[in-house]
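Page 37, top half.
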Amino acid sequence: METNNINTFGQLKDAGYVYKSIKEELRQNLLQKLMQKEIVFEGIHGYEYTVIPELERAILSKHNINLLGLRGQAKTRLARQMVSLLDEYVPVVEGSEINDDPFQPISRYAKELLVEKDDKTPITWLHRNERFAEKLATPDVTVADIIGDVDPIKAANLKLTYADDRVIHFGMIPRANRCIFVINELPDLQARIQVALFNILQEGDIQIRGFKLRLPMDIQFVFTANPEDYTNRGSIVTPLKDRIGSQILTHYPESLDIARTITAQETTAAQAEKPNVYVPEIAKDILEQISFEARESEFIDSKSGVSARLSITAFENLLSTAERRALLNGDKNTTIRLSDFMGVIPAITGKVELVYEGEQEGVNGVAKQLISDAVKTEFLNYFPKIEKLQKEGDPDPYEALVGWFFEQSGGFELLDTANDNEFEKQLDKVEPLDDLIDTYVGDFNKKDKPFVKEVILWALVEFKKLSKYNLSDGLRFKDVYGGYISGL
């Protein structure tokens, strides 16, 4: 509807405007998008056949919704994107605190104004981007905050008694009338505050103090909750859960490709700022694999979850680690090295909750182990499995490589202070690495080759075929027995 020339209630009626509830708006606009086969929720990956169909069914059913899942599963993003399903503009009685529709006024102010001015009642237009309200549930939230209370200052200024409903100061929910209202981390809301939501969800109205006032709210509620909260901090009271139409379970990416797509989308700005840093494809896979390893780790509390933000912040740290190294070495351009992954440890340590065994290992030790496990997993996607006991007569694809290190009495060093050319030349000295890559790795970008060589060395260390020592400015690799003898 053209809104520029419609400024009064009479003009609105002449234009043929028809009132719709917010749930009806969402339903009709979703139906239209589905018929036109448009993407409803942009930038949400991995939910195409699970969460999004359930969310669409809930909207079509006009339900209030609870998105239940661990942290970093795009619950809030889904709720915010529901705004795109609202009409672009809706009419509001001018001056109304609670977005009164002129056809369905609910506040005393709007009703009296319509009686006084009738068709000349001024209206304004509310854009859909302004029809979203969000509240993080915390234990200190009060009924007055979210529903309302008597305002003594207003009573004094207007010279009204407390028996007059005009002394009410409306809370967040009434002010979100005709909007999408999101309450994040619902279990953190005190039980008595959750009880205050019963009537709003069931009857669609609010009650404040002892007033006879009943305001039928037109709100689409979306709640988010973490299952961990049910045991650690609080719970959703059963009668409130019963009044929420649909509870939808979210989940983490189920494949490495989906995880990579999400990380690439969320780190576009970071990559644009560092165009001089090249990231090999296998490095991206190892980075995502860290999160997958963390979700399976015995040292990490699985109930707490491992947020998708781990991969995003780790990728940003990885780029910055390479950028800093290149600057110090005088390189204009550089390629990610496996040793750069030590720079992502601070991004891991703040994203995982350790169990008792993990606390004993130490958070840094757990982070390093996750990186090592990711390297091992990715290595086995390309190269033969390394058996602990080799059957006699069976060929050992790593025999030549291990033998090469056995001949290097002083060990083999990879220094962070080496520029890219020096680093590649150092790796090229290990000729058996080229043979392994040519034999087992298919067609891949030749720029990735130095990184793949590093992966082989690190993996052989993890499988006890080589030993690795930290230097102040790099790493030294030796054969296992040579390292043991020199230690003696």
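Page 37, bottom half:
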Amino acid sequence: MEQQIKVGLMAYGMSGKIFHAPFLEAHTNFELVAVVERSKNNAQKDYPHVKIYRDIESLLSDATIDLIVVNTPNFTHFEYAKAALNAGKHVLIEKPFSVLRKEAEELFSLAFRKGLKVLAFQNRRFDSDFIAVEKVVRSGKLGRISEAHIRFDRYRNEISPKKFKEENVPGAGVFYDLGAHIIDQAISLFGVPAECHKTYGKYRDNTEVDDFAQAHLKYSKGLNVYVTCNMLVVKAQAAYAFYGSKGSLIKARTDEQESQLNAGVKLNDTGYGIEKPNQEGHLYTLSRNGEVIDELMPAEVGNYRLLFNEVYKAIQGDGSYFVNQNEVLALLSILEK
């Protein structure tokens, strides 16, 4: 068996419990060693072999740990990632990588000097819906794309009890929360834009942070990409709507992984990562006689396990990481207010 990478989680909230621990535990190349929980022992109930630390300093002092996952509130990412690198650990950072571009530049520089890896956790590139959309875009079936819309809609009319998401602190607001996913998807599909114009809105009663945001990404060859997040959409609109010279693509947000993991579905269970029936996307083209052809896009299998394969290869030096440094910096330039 290849050498295992021993991992420490900085938190065991939703992201630690759903997006990290199950994958680290199931992956033969990783061993989940320790988790920080200030007062509870939930991680140990789920994984009895895991050590519980009450503070981050103790986690970073554990000499057995090779990789630290920074999955704490957004405004702490830079401070904690820097501390982990200075402790000699590789780092995997939840989105957003940091609040400011200059912070990310410092982390990349520090990691390089220390011979360590600092990696962005962009799991939405491995959603079933995005994989299907990416496949169509790469195929060229749309021709030259002139306009593309990527949305992340939710309906949350009340202020969340998660204070770090709702208080007016650095990295708060819907754009840093959901926009960090879909801006990354736009960059993954189309590259770094030449220009960006942003709009923000606050519409919920007593909100301190933006609950609507849109960025218009303009590309040098004429492509216009609009990324939109809205917390007040009862019936979500199409997550992907792309218009090209040969056809149009429409796809809803349909990835099942988060809801399946919340429901207790295991990674090896039948049906994991598979969309529900009748949620295929639509590829619209014209026949020679001008009739609209509606081609259903086959459902792809979502698989966050692939991200952890990429993390392992990057740390072992077996290849470049799927989110490169320039993409991270471009994303933060767009997110920054």
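Margin note: The CA atoms of residues 124 and 181 lie 6 Å apart.
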